[in-house]
Amino acid sequence: MKVVGYARRSRERHNGFGLEEQEDRIRRWADYREADVVAILRDDDTSGIAEPEQRPGLGEALRLLREGDADALVVAKFDRLSRSVHGFSDVLRASEREGWKLVCLDPEVDFTTAIGRGWATMLTVFADIEREAFVNRMRGGRAAKQARGGYVGGHRLHRRYGYRLVEHADGKRDYEPVPAEQRAIAEIRKLRDGGMTLQQVGEELERRGVPGPTGNGWNRPTLHRILKREVA
User: Fold this and answer.
1) CATH of domain 2-141
2) For the whole prediction, is pTM greater than 0.70?
3) Which residues contact 8 (CB under 8 A, 6 or more apart)?
4) Which helix (H) or strand (E) covers residue 110, if one does?
5) Which of 13, 156, 163, 180 has fewest C-beta within 10 Å?
6) What are the boundaries of each domain within the chain?
7) pLDDT digit string (tens) for 137-195?
């Protein structure tokens, strides 16, 4: 039997099931089954919800199978193939239509039976749930970091009152507190807690000569945004 292996590492995390580990598992399985490995295609930094044909590695693997250069597609772990029911179904239907086998090593599932296909669909649903939970955890972490004054990335580098954006020697960027502006933020909170309206707070800051973020004084939207951002 001739097989083509497929390995994928997600863009969301690079510390999990690595490409080399997946490839090693596929080759050990092929040795045990005395199967010839035609190729092992990789997709690095690629989401599992991407359409199969849109992934360079998986797209090439499917082409080899379609053209009869291999008899089976082997993946080391189920969620390396797809994290969406739609994507998995596309690959499974292609295998049935084109006459090649789909082999999953973890967990071991026989996709040629109705029970195997049913289990595979259930596994895909749970993989999708796990991914959504992971994304939610990432968002929560980003929000917590932002609340602490950390830089959480983005297409634009926003100026944040109370912090300056700095780039470190390793290329990473982060926010560092600006002492004078941090003192102003503390005073804003103190005045607000004392019962002043946002307009009164702005007037008091201008009376004291505290410069605003843009040098044009203070207004209610600016004060509201600063207070809201500083809530931990």
Assistant:
1) 3.40.50.1390
2) no
3) 19, 22, 42, 43, 44, 46, 48, 55, 57, 58, 80, 81
4) strand 108-110
5) 156
6) 2-141, 150-232
7) 666 655 555 555 554 454 344 567 888 877 777 767 777 888 988 999 999 999 998 99
